Amino acid sequence: MDSLAIVILNFNGQAFLAKFLPTVLAHAEGHPVYVADSASTDDSVAFVRANFPDIRLIELPTNGGYAGGYNRALEYIRTNYGGARYYVLPNSDIEVTPGWIAPVMALLEANPQIAACQPKILSYSQRDLFEHAGAAGGYVDWLGYVFCRGRVFATFETDEGQYNDNQRVFWATGACLFLRADLFHQVGGFDDSFFAHMEEIDLCWRLQRLGYEVWACGQSTVYHVGGGTLHKSNPHKTYLNYRNSLFMLYKNWPSDGWLWGKFLLRLILDGVSSLLFLKVGQWRDVMAIIRAHFAFYGHLPQLHRQRKALQKQQKTAVALYPHSIVWAYFVKGAKTFRELRNR
């Protein structure tokens, strides 16, 4: 069994593989590198075979998105390669740096309660700024809105070493996610129904319900292009983000008597965001939000079964950020994590 498996999921990302695989291999620190291809149509498979013979290639028959693709790839590694003690799942558009693995592995080895961890995520194009997808570790507020150390909504902090510590957080980003392999498989991996977006937050939430921890390791840094497979301007991304947020919340929100009250507030705020999209002429995003809500209603029976099963398995309560990030950011003017913490 390998101590760590580096697993890159790919869908029509040949250009990113050509750009970033050499750096991954150069800084793999002796760990095996896998590329799991999700039925690409851009000759990614032939390209990897021809140019990277040391990479272990997994050919998945269909595109199951981030969630389904990684579930199948990691199960394949466990079955056919003897598995690994840890996985790290860098996106195909991640540029790693020298020594990016060792600090995270040291943190995981020192604390068996840590189930998931991430490095510091900076922007590939603006290298002194934190990147949207995870920054320096994420949190969830009481209405289910997510934010990060280093990135709150559209405000990105400059990296000045303020998050170079190792810190317990609520969620670690799927852009470059380290996982304790046995726990990943124990909880059933990612939720396939998410396809892509928010699946890592759902996983981190479920792991914490069982008493495990999620951390960010500020001593490790990678750079992320972002939107490599699905650009932020694509309405399908809007659909997945809004739908999966509702999926995640219904499954995991505590039963404190306010479940449907909080959902009503979320739906109202989603409506407000639809008006903002409409104001700038992005009517396809408005339709995406409407479709996301109807998809949520259609999945309620399945989500209710999942919610009941998770409640039976839960061993410890999980604390959310107890205030509204929307109110703090848009009304009170708290634009950074430090300002939120001070307030």
From TrEMBL:
GTP-binding keyword on record: no
GO molecular function: glycosyltransferase activity
Coiled-coil zones: none
Domain Glycosyltransferase 2-like: from-to ranges: 6-185
Signal peptide, first to last residue: none
Keywords of this entry: Glycosyltransferase, Transferase
Sequence similarity: Belongs to the glycosyltransferase 2 family.
Name of protein: Glycosyltransferase family 2 protein
